[in-house]
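Let's inspect one such protein example.
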Amino acid sequence: MDKLYTIRYKNANEVITTHETETDFFKLDIVEKDNRYTVTLIPKRTFEIVDFIVDMPFAFKKGDKFFGNGYQSWTKTKEYTADEIMPGIIHLADISEFTKGIARKTSDAWFVDYSELPGEFHSHCYTYIRNGDHVKLWGSLSEKFGYTLFKVKMNANRFFFVKDLEGKLIREPWQIFDIVSFEGTYEEVFDKYFAMWKMPETRFGMMSGYTSWYNYFQNITEDIIIRDLNGLDPYKDQVNIFQIDDGYETFIGDWLDPNPKKFPKGMKYIADEIHKKGYKAGIWLAPFNCQKVSRMAKEHPDWLIQDDNGKPMVGCIAWGGAYTFDIYNEEVRAYLKEVFDVVLNEWGYDMVKLDFLYSQCIKPRYGKCRGEIMCDAMAFLRELVGDKLFLGCGVPIGPALGVVDACRISCDVDLTYFGKFYSRIQVSNEMLNARSAINNSLFRRHLSKRVWMNDPDVFFLRKDNLTFTDEQKYLLGKINNLCGDVLFVSDNAGDYDAKTGELLKKFFDKTNEKVIDAEYLRDEVIKVTTEKDGVVSSFTFDLAKGSFITVEDWKKYF
């Protein structure tokens, strides 16, 4: 396959573009053997590289579908056909630098251009092209040398390997690509690809239980938590974990300052009460972030990543905007080490859900590119978590591979099936709604058990503080049970009637039914084909409405 190399790098303040494989600045060591392709850049002097693109022809066929793996946990992920468009940030967001920043904060739009032309898509870390039962997969074997993207222009028959290297200062040989490719069935190619990562075995095959977020958000108290903990008593045979989410801390970033009014007995008391029930205790942190009003932000402004103007950089828009700790600051590392020691050892929590992790790598710095920074950050967190359970969320997928025990594979759901108005106008591909969560759970199902425990976010069964039809609730629960290994509700199960309690048991009881195919038939109509005990069956649903297409499909499952 003929390849055109395009390398952009800096000479002083000038950006130079070259197609040569050797210049006065570098030479390339390119090896193609069997199903593996590697490119190593060998510098002749120190210089800053911007990006690296390999452009090659590819004969797309009628019926080909391109898998677009989203940048991070929440990003939309699906198969695309040549007549579709991959939506980016809506143009309304471009009215000012401020709105641009808000819209792009969670996404890859900082460093990836969305063409918004039919058939032009990209995928992070790995991708495949599927035609019927035949799948060809390409995948990176490491993101620590920079983010790997696979791009296509299906209608122009072009395929690209792209490396995001912005900010990388090249001083020594740097492996640009280490890409493998496999052909076979869907299951075969993923078995082969992830086997090459030499993943550690997940240490916890399945988690089912409770998380506090989607009923109370930050308005949790000790009394609410203990009440909901006791509410699970009739279902204790199906429950093995109970997680406290955001709201226990005084401010984001001040992790060792639990709110004394809301949790007067402290967080160790809560963990102890959870353990008395026989469950593992989980707790949420956004370890890299601190609110503008937090004690940490006020006392340690030098701990924060700075923007180009020398001011603290806003790393996420939650909580009215939050700054980001710089993990390369030794005092930050010492502080986070203390936080995790207290949370895991003094308070006694068994699992940490670590959220908004993408914020660490928005800005390249210290001669490091984004992928390198994110891999450093994930290795640091794994060191802090030790042998306790690590649930990743809001994390770029590639750097999380082989590091976390469980990972969110979808965006947040919402208290309404359709999501807030800004989700419907696609401010970004990460905005919360059940429709996107269901889509992602189906198209990231291959990660389950091969890489980690899939967390598809919660399902709901309660009747209050929620805008879901029964059918929407059951569809979400069914997809979570099929594709997930972390099965959480946020309901007070003590309010359930007998019928609802039986449904909870049904959705917590992980099925041996396996999804063998999921595809869009038209618009937002999805057909899911499954196999259970040797019997193949299917059901079809309208994702836009959250409803099964036929009464028979509805009755078959409920």
User: Anything to note?
Assistant: The chain has 14 helices and 28 strands. The longest strand covers residues 158-170. Residues 207-409+444-511 form a domain with the TIM Barrel fold (CATH 3.20.20.70). Residues 330-346 form the longest helix (17 residues).
